[in-house]
Design goal:
With 235 residues, the chain is mainly α. It has helices at residues 9-29, 36-43, 47-54, 57-80, 86-103, 105-114, 120-146, 155-167, 181-195, 200-216. The longest helix is centred in the middle third of the chain and has 27 residues, at 120-146.
Length: 235
């Protein structure tokens, strides 16, 4: 929701806090079961003041979905456009996806469970974003198969396998635990690439390249919410 005219940064900070609190409540209680009064009590605002910040309960759901999909889709497009091996790009995209899952567990829960509560243009936009993200994965898998790096008969099914392995992580992962996004991405991709017929040598090389990417390209973080810094020409 655009910031109303005349409102300064404090308004936006408060609004973002309300969105995050709503994500936590929706994840714990469910979108349908959480009333505006529940949210108002959680953030210390009466209903009228709450609507001043959020517009409507449905708009909150839109904002929560956007907090996940907008940065993720933007980063995925940047990774897909890198001049790099398709297996490496899949590995980097995997880590980026897991990073946002770790960062926004409550938002991801709402995204996965309650997006069907949206209607009209908002639902159409969200489904379009999901489709765009899936097409990026399919494109990378297809490119790897065309280079004989993977053996695929059904790129669409391979895409669903990729998504299924990653998208259920939010149900059990514990941020700060023994596994971080990079570790899970390495293990997930090893499982997928071996299952798709990648050679062990390719797996080792892909991991070496991923390590080098982190080391040599710090201006291109995989965190979807961090900016990619342009490299000056001639540097």
């Amino acid at each position: 929701m655009p910031r109303p005219p005349g409102h300064g940064p404090d308004f936006e900070v408060r609004r973002q806090k309300i969105i995050d609190t709503a994500a936590e409540l929706f994840a714990r209680q469910g979108y349908a079961a959480t009333s505006v009064n529940d949210l108002g009590r959680a953030v210390g605002l009466a209903k009228g003041a709450l609507y001043y910040y959020i517009g409507s309960k449905e708009n909150l759901l839109i904002e929560i979905q956007s907090r996940v999909m907008s940065p993720l889709l933007s980063r995925a497009r940047q990774i897909a456009e890198l001049d790099a091996d398709p297996l490496l790009r899949l590995r980097l995209l995997s880590e980026s996806l897991l990073t946002i899952i770790f960062r926004r567990l409550d938002h991801i829960w709402v995204y996965e469970h309650d997006y069907r509560s949206l209607t009209g243009d908002e639902l159409h936009t969200l489904l379009g974003q999901r489709s765009d993200f899936e097409h990026l994965i399919t494109g990378l898998l297809t490119e790897a198969a065309e280079q004989d790096r993977l053996r695929l008969t059904e790129p669409r099914l391979a895409t669903l396998q990729f998504l299924n392995l990653h998208n259920h992580t939010y149900q059990w992962v514990k941020p700060g635990g023994r596994w971080d996004p990079a570790y899970l991405s390495r293990e997930y991709c090893a499982t997928l690439f071996r299952g798709f017929g990648a050679a062990d040598g390719d797996l080792t090389l892909t991991e070496e390249r991923a390590t080098m990417f982190h080391r040599d390209r710090p201006e291109l973080p995989l965190d979807p919410e961090a900016a990619w810094e342009p490299v000056p020409v001639g540097s």
